[in-house]
Structure formats: structure tokens, C-alpha cells
Write a structure and sequence with these properties.
18% strand; single chain; alpha+beta; three-stranded antiparallel β-sheet
Length: 513
């Protein structure tokens, strides 16, 4: 397939993607969902007859869903499928490399953001790239960076599918400062390049006129080619970076949809269908409070023929009247009480809305703990539909984990790591990450609670083996304890090893005497 790589052709692909998003109402729906979750639920409405109140049911549900899905510390482990020579060393190196890359890129924090975007907007997306300027404490500089991209800024070549690896191309729209883009273009400049064609394009929603005047839309286009992934950056009228091929085996993009839609690359948010309920709750509550303000307090009624100057309820103030004061006509009036059905309907609407979204009283903790087993059973039954989203979230994590390995193999080069060998001794090894590239990158990535609990089970099993005497050597016991379960593990192992060597030397001296 021949690709037209001119800025005008890439911009036409971008406009086709925008047309598709408009056809399914994505831009308007995302803005509406964001407004309602953030509490801007009366925006654009002119209300003068009552005070607009907001009882934000949606935000509570969104926070609950995100908290339930990321409550467990998800672990990522990678190991070669073929357990041959050097497999244990590779596994130990990858464990350290993963931990370091995840910490520098803040990918766990960004995963919460991507999950929140998927819950509110329908989709979450990561774009991963290698930053060669990051200091690593080694001769080899650079590490992986992760950007959380909104679904309104991601454009798939095949809009009928959300499978990243089957896309003919992927576009990511970035709003950047014009001067910054010009500097990048100068660094990548080729003869005949027109830097002056990089101009503000006036696009972008939610920006002030000043921001629109100094920002430009940069389109990052990627496609699969023989030998890797080809990347290109363009604006509407200029090329910022000519197409270059990087030796990746997969797109450095991870994509998550909350609820998939057939024949569409965009998912559906649970917030969308609950917005009419939220509007009804706000309206009823506002009218309920307004009615209480009008009829809850008694009103003074007086005869205007006897009080021509009006009646005053101020303390100590004289009130003039006509006729005999003993015959003054004055009484208090109280309107009928509001029907209790209004408040009952409101509470039922709020409860039903949260329960249909998956946030029942049992999950929220709004129950009296009289029967623990029943409460746990209800919580599990209510959270069961969320398991499908949890599995999608784990698949999303597996995707970015594999992209991490892909980028490590392409950019890390040779790096040094300190590992523990089979005898419990520490040694520094130089690992060439280029061995992960191509056909040799047959790696098993495990994601989810199973990885976390496998570490816990490993520790418990290790303790049991020590108690039963199967493990008699303290060094062997410590070697099998996961590093994150014991601080100062390596220092303790060095002290025990030194003590063991000293005891062994003392025994040999005693035998020689």
C-alpha cells in the first residue's frame, strides 16, 4: 500500500478522523461527561425561579470504580519462555529494569488517570516513547516516558476496530507551542524545509484566544513497515520530522475501552447513560428545597383596613391601627406540608442510579454490619460486572508492559545490574538488551492480582519450609524472599555470608590444631 506522506495528505487523514468522531458525537459527549463528573451540571442554563442545587451521584460512582480497579498493587513480571542457560539472569535483570522504568515514567499514577479517562470519556490511551536525555546513573542515558492521551486526540486508520496492532496507521494530535515546534523542526531540518510554514492554526477546545494564537497542532503519524515502525511529525503545512523507522515490533500505544461498541474504535462510558438521571435528581432536589423555603415557615396575615400602614414584626416597634386594638384581625397561616412522596422518589432515584451503575449500598459501605458473610456476598455479587472491566484493565497493562520491553530492546543497549546468583552471592552483570529484539523476545508477561498474591504465597510457603526444617540455610531462605517484602535484604545476606565464612574458617583452624 502506497502512503502519501505530505503534510496536506496527513492533515486530510486527520480531518477524516475528526469527521468520524463528530458523526458519533464523541466531542460533545466527552465534554458533557466531563462537565457532569466535575460538577458543572447547570452550565448554560438560565434559572431564575429556583436555586440550582447539585447532588453529584456520578462523581462518587466514578471514584468508586477507579478505586476498586486500582486498589491492588499490580505487579508485572517477565521471563523467557525457554528456560535455558542465562534465563534466571535475564529474569532478574528484567525485574530490576521494569521496576526502574516504571518508577521513572510514573506509569502507575498515569494508569489511574487512563482508567479514569476510560470511565468518564469511554477510552483511555498511553503513548510510550524513549527520552535519550534522562540520567540513569550509568554510561547509557535515556529511559522510557509515558504520555496519557485523550481519546479525542487519537485517530485510528481503521475506525471500525479498536485493536491497535491491526491499524494501518495511527495519528496522535498534539497541541504544542509554535516556537518549540520550530526548534524541533530546525534540529531535524533538511534542505528545502520551510520553517516559516509552521504557524498557529487556531484549533483546540477550551483554550483562550491567546493560547490559540501561539499553539499549533502537530500530528504524530506511525505505521508498520518492514523492519519496524515508521514515525513522522507534520503540521498542516510543514514537516517537523521526516519519516524514520525505529526497530519496534509493535505500536508504542496501549488502548483501553470501558465498554466496547461493535464496529467502532471508541467505547461507551457508564456516565453517559446516567446523565438524564442526574439531571432529574438535581431538578427535583432544587424544586423540593425551593418549595420548603416558600411554605415551611408560617406567614402573618392581617386586615389592611385596620393596618393601613402595614404590619411590622420588629421587636418593640409600635404598630398603628384603626379601631379598637382588642379587635385587631391578625393571624398566622401555615401552608400544607410537602408530600413525602417527593423525598421518597428522590432517594429511590439516587439509590437506583448508583446501583445500576454498580455502586450499591453494600459496596459503598452504607449498611449496618450485622451479618458479615451476607455483606461480603452482596459486595462480591455487586462487583462481579466490574470484573470484565478489570480484565480489560489488566490487558491494557500487559500491552504497555510489552511495549516497555520493545523499547528496552531497541534503545537500552548494554546496562549494568547487580543480581544474586544461585549461591546467594551478589555480582554485577552487563546485560545487552538488544537480545530482547526480534524473534528472541519470547516473553511471558503476567499481570494482575495473581502476580501480587504469588509473591505473598511465595513468602508464606518459604516461612513454612523454614519452620518444617526443609530449608535449614538462612541464606537460602532470604534468597527466596521477594526483595520488596524485606528492606535491607542484600545487606543481611552479606552479613550472614560473612558470618558463615568466618565460622567455616574457625572450624578449619580447630581441625588443623
Amino acid at each position: 500500500m502506497k502512503h502519501d506522506l505530505t503534510p496536506a495528505a496527513v492533515w486530510r487523514e486527520y480531518e477524516r478522523g475528526q469527521d468520524y468522531k463528530r458523526s458519533i458525537g464523541l466531542y460533545g459527549q466527552v465534554k458533557k461527561n466531563e462537565d457532569f463528573v466535575q460538577g458543572r451540571q447547570w452550565e448554560g442554563l438560565r434559572v431564575s425561579t429556583l436555586d440550582p442545587l447539585i447532588f453529584n451521584v456520578l462523581r462518587r460512582c466514578v471514584n468508586l470504580f477507579v478505586a476498586m480497579l486500582v486498589s491492588d498493587d499490580v505487579a508485572v513480571s517477565a521471563a523467557p519462555f525457554e528456560r535455558g542457560k542465562g534465563a534466571e539472569q535475564t529474569e532478574a535483570v528484567l525485574e530490576q529494569a521494569f521496576a526502574s522504568a516504571m518508577e521513572r515514567s510514573k506509569v502507575k499514577t498515569l494508569s489511574r488517570m487512563a482508567l479514569r479517562n476510560a470511565c468518564v470519556d469511554g477510552d483511555g490511551c498511553f503513548y510510550m516513547h524513549f527520552d535519550p536525555e534522562i540520567e540513569t546513573g550509568q554510561d547509557a542515558k535515556g529511559d522510557i516516558q509515558v504520555d496519557c492521551i485523550d481519546n479525542t486526540n487519537v485517530y485510528f486508520g481503521n475506525t471500525a476496530s479498536d485493536e491497535v496492532e491491526r491499524q494501518p496507521y495511527i495519528l496522535i494530535a498534539l497541541r504544542r507551542d509554535v516556537d518549540e515546534v520550530k526548534m524541533e523542526a530546525l534540529q531535524n531540518r533538511r534542505p528545502g524545509a520551510d520553517i516559516n510554514a509552521i504557524l498557529p492554526d487556531g484549533e483546540g477546545e477550551g483554550m483562550t484566544p491567546h493560547e490559540k494564537d501561539r499553539r499549533v497542532t502537530v500530528l504524530l503519524r506511525m505505521r508498520k513497515v518492514p523492519g519496524g515502525i515508521a514515525f513522522q511529525k507534520t503540521t498542516r503545512h510543514a514537516t517537523v520530522m521526516r519519516e524514520k523507522v525505529l526497530p519496534y515490533s509493535r505500536y508504542p500505544v496501549a488502548y483501553l475501552s470501558w465498554d466496547r461498541v461493535k464496529n467502532s474504535c471508541h467505547g461507551v462510558s457508564p456516565v453517559t447513560e446516567a446523565i438524564p438521571n442526574q439531571i432529574a435528581i438535581n431538578k427535583l432536589y432544587s424544586m423540593y428545597v425551593q418549595c420548603i423555603k416558600q411554605v415551611a415557615f408560617p406567614k402573618i396575615i392581617y386586615d389592611m383596613t385596620r393596618f393601613p400602614n402595614g404590619y411590622s414584626s420588629e421587636i418593640g416597634k409600635a404598630v398603628g391601627m384603626r379601631g379598637n386594638p382588642n379587635e385587631a384581625f391578625l393571624s398566622a397561616f401555615k401552608a400544607p406540608d410537602i408530600s413525602g412522596q417527593v423525598l421518597a422518589v428522590l432517594k429511590q432515584m439516587m439509590s437506583d442510579t448508583m446501583e445500576l451503575m454498580g455502586a450499591s449500598d453494600a459496596v459503598l459501605g452504607n449498611v449496618t454490619p450485622t451479618n458479615t458473610s451476607a455483606i461480603v456476598a452482596v459486595q462480591k455479587a455487586t462487583a462481579a460486572p466490574l470484573e470484565l472491566v478489570r480484565l480489560e484493565f489488566y490487558r491494557f497493562i500487559e500491552d504497555w508492559a510489552r511495549s516497555f520491553l520493545d523499547l528496552m530492546g531497541a534503545h537500552y543497549g548494554v546496562r549494568s545490574y547487580t543480581i544474586t546468583d544461585g549461591e546467594g552471592k551478589e555480582k554485577t552483570v552487563a546485560f545487552d538488551f538488544a537480545t530482547l529484539r526480534g524473534g528472541e523476545m519470547r516473553l511471558n508477561v503476567e499481570v494482575g492480582e495473581a502476580s501480587y498474591w504469588s509473591e505473598t504465597v511465595q513468602t508464606v510457603t518459604n516461612d513454612h519450609l523454614l519452620e518444617t526444617g526443609v530449608i535449614a540455610d538462612p541464606l537460602l531462605y532470604l534468597q527466596n524472599v521477594p526483595d520488596q517484602h524485606m528492606k535491607g535484604k542484600r545487606g543481611l545476606m552479606r552479613a550472614l555470608r560473612k558470618q558463615k565464612e568466618e565460622n567455616h574458617g574457625t572450624e578449619e583452624t580447630g581441625q588443623s590444631v
